[in-house]
Amino acid sequence: MRNILAASLLALSAGLAGNAFAEPVKIGMITTLSGGGAGLGIDARDGFMLAIKQSGNSEIEVVTEDDAQKPELAVQIADKMVQSDKVDLMTGIIWSNLAMAVVPAVTAQDIIYLSVNAGPSALAGAGCGPNYFNVAYQNDNFHEAMGEAANKDYKKTFIMAPNYPAGKDSLTGFKRYYKGELAGEVYTKLGQTDYAAEIAQIRASGADSVFIFLPGGMGIAFTKQYAQSGVGLPLLGPAFSFSQDVLPAIGDAALGVKNTASWAPDLDNAANKAFVDGFKAEYGRLPSVYAAQAYDTANLILSAAAKASVKDKDAFRAALKEAQFDSVRGKFSFNTNNHPIQDFYVREVVKDGDTLTNKIVGTAFTDHKDAYAAECKM
Amino acid sequence: MLFLMAAGLTLIFGVMGLINLAHGSLFMIGAFACATVAAATGSFWLGLVASLAAAAAAGALVEILVIRRLYERDHLDQVLATFALILIFSEGTRWVFGSFPLYLDIPQLLSGAVHLPGGAQYPVYRLAVIGVGIAVAIGLYLLIGKTRLGMRIRAGESDREMIGALGIDIGTLYTLVFALGAALAGLAGAMVGALQSVQVGMGEPVLILAFVVIVIGGIGSIKGALIGSVLVGLTETLGRFLLPHLFGLFMPPSDAATVGAALASMLIYIVMALILAFRPRGLFAASA
Fold first, then answer.
1. Which residues form the Leucine-binding protein domain (chain A) (predicted)?
2. Which residues on chain B are in Cβ contact (under 8 Å) with A194?
3. pLDDT tens sequence across A290-305
């Protein structure tokens, strides 16, 4: 279970000594490596480790543990990492319900937490704090982008998400920008795999499109069953429902589906090219949006550690906040609540040779900020 | 499909007096075998055969290596040992196939939807799954009720030592029953895998439902498993659909959706509790 991935890579020669950190950095990574949500966590871990490896820096040590998507387990691991592993920074949590269980507790102990994925609204607004940096997004963002994009073509959308913090944030975000009418709003059980009842509701609702937020195995199950049901309304969603980790399992049923994200494999910048090529070479598969966010998180940490000692919390926080690193998302900066200001794109699932992947077809938002920053008093 | 799972479980539990928590793993093995073979050969049907074979083989192997030593022990030991099997199977599968879900699609023949009388549309594949469920129910009824093997299984259920004394190899019989139960789980896994995602840990949620089904239906009764699975399936689906509407009558829609969804996921357990309160041995308790 316990897996110390000491970044035991050969330190680059003394010629690069200028890059050496003031202080070695120990990072605790809690992520989902087993169970139904493991694909997301493994992609995040692999993206993170790729950035560390590419940097060639030997002064970073990463302690990785599996939370099995269980909040109580994540809390135990966090306590252990703070008390016995004495980590300087923590990162890695995929799921918002786990983040809510862990993040407030560790940041209160003056450990800096950097989120690679989960961005619950509670931590972006009133619950924000100087020790919490979200490198991914605020949960509402991808959905807001889809709401905005849907205005163009659709008038009556049926919306659906699982019943947990990110699911609520999702539908709130969609509704914030969507101007059409809602044909229905449904919360499903987290981890549900049979959608016959929901598909019947969609059929009866008279909708002209369907927006779903169903990450991991839930999205695979829904999309396949939906394709078989013959309903045939256009599917919309945030990138989570149609990310690279699930596309091969959904198969052709996903073709043509529109989804929104802050990143896509074909985003045109040098950092992204190095990331996508490096990921393919290292792991033999295409990266997902989770891998991209984790890769950015690791590079952000590296950029801050080159400037300040991790033991000097104030200086390190300031260095993180500057966000001077080459993001795979092009431009990237932090808002006042330590959440990103970034662009959001509309992507479409296409077939590239034999592989299904996402291609950018439009831009939903430029320099988008989340809706909760004003509530954050920091 | 829930019936297939529950039938296998109740067969093992009723006949052999064994709690098999690893039944969900056999379900998973069926799905993975089907996905692998279907990907290699391009034929879903070969995959289906492979899933039956793989799950039956895994079942027989597990019976001979592990379960055989557990018949004399109490249920706690069985639960512990079979729980360990879940972990071993899950990690083993992850080791071989990785953590990413596999692709398994339904065959061309069964894709699409048909129009039912009354104007509703229904996916062909789900009809086929119902058909298989009914076929297995009839097959099991005939097997247990009308054949010599079934007679022996029933005899083994009521008196293990007596049937051994009558010169029947009880060990082989049990291995056979276990493999049969496992094959049913594998078949269910393969068929569900085409509807959902084939991934590690897919068996556990179904396992819990299957236990609810056999408790409602009466332990060891195939008929109970059939009625129980229909009851659980209907309760869950109708609850998910109707409860939010019901609460919508006197609540704002978003609250109604939340409360309704929460209550719907509890509903089958409430039904189970009610049934146990009035019929503590389940609806169709096997005569023991």
1. 24-353
2. 195-196
3. 999 999 999 999 999 9
